[in-house]
Write a structure and sequence with these properties.
It is built from 15 helices and 14 strands. It folds into three domains: 165 residues, P-loop containing nucleotide triphosphate hydrolases (Rossmann fold, 3-Layer(aba) Sandwich); 91 residues, 3-Layer(aba) Sandwich (Rossmann fold); 110 residues, Rossmann fold, CATH 3.40.50. With 406 residues, it is of the alpha/beta class. Strand 4, helix 3 and strand 5 form a beta-alpha-beta unit. The two termini are 47 Å apart.
Amino acid sequence: MNETPSSSRVHIGFFGRRNAGKSSLVNAITGQELAIVSEVKGTTTDPVYKAMELLPLGPVVIIDTPGIDDEGALGELRVLKAKQALNKTDVAVLVADASAGTEEKAEQELIKLFQKKQTPFIIAYNKSDLADRAVLDFLEKGNAEPCGICVSAKNKTNIDALKEKITALAKTEEPKLRLAGDLISPSDFVLLVVPIDKAAPKGRLILPQQQTIRDILEADGTAIVVKEHELRETLQHLGKKPRLVITDSQVFAKVSADTPPDVPLTSFSILFARYNGLLAAAVEGVQTLDALKDNDAILISEGCTHHRQCDDIGAVKLPRWMRNYTGKRLEFAFTSGGDFPLDLSPYKLIVHCGGCMLNNREMRYRQTCAADQKTPITNYGVLIAHMQGILKRCVAVFPAFRDALC
């Protein structure tokens, strides 16, 4: 089984009007019956996500969305869900009826939305087996919308060619940063402080820890994993100064006290803030914490939907720590998973998790929403480091911040 996390997979979204054949095309491309197909309009009522291997691209998430032209009060909600799916889509496929083209208002609005969000897209003119030859000639000669291809989900016509075009668009995406591999040299020791998290599945580390260990190993470094109460003794007996200490943010205070000042220190959450392009905004946004007033509202947003424990970091610990730090009567709202408010005006500050379950495009969207609405945003690790008075130390491990702080 391929265990590539969803956040590291290329997200391919299929969009279009009802009955354009989105679900049929998804099934044809994947070679599986992933989506329910029916002649009834509006069969797909919510975005359907499926992690899989798609050759020649590799690990992907396929997103089948509701019709963009759905009607009525319920239809508006479905359209909204489809548009929200675009926020995490790396490559979009606009599925249109080959006999009708893309002249409908809903499709033109989709194209403008793709362009606004700078989402690479291709138009798949489906049902080519039912279209007139003259129409197909018009489409195939490039006289219609650019980047289009005529396909038939029913007859499997041009399906492989469509997959190749999707692959080509996916490879134009910007390469992602390393988590920690670019901060170390081969043979460097990296100490990872990992409390046993009650929210993690039995017998497993949580995803940020797994991914960081993998990145260190890929950089030919040595990853040494300890619990927080083992750090001091490990440092004394290591025989070599570690290049870096990375800790769970919840134990920042103890780890900072036990780590010598000349050993760089940061957290998994801060690494992910840099990885997702949020770090600069998070360091700036956390300064808002010191100016909060009574009754100010804070949004705490998590990208995953784990079962909340009795002393959950997002729902319990952070609100308590923030109230104690500020001495103010703060109000809190919470979102998780794919939910993120369109209107951020009620909030004085957004505190986001590390975002290990969200891809870079989704994190960029959330950061852009915050910037557009002038709502400061930070993340768990940056916030906790600020409240512990060690933020400068924890971001100085990154060259760009080290130069700015000097």
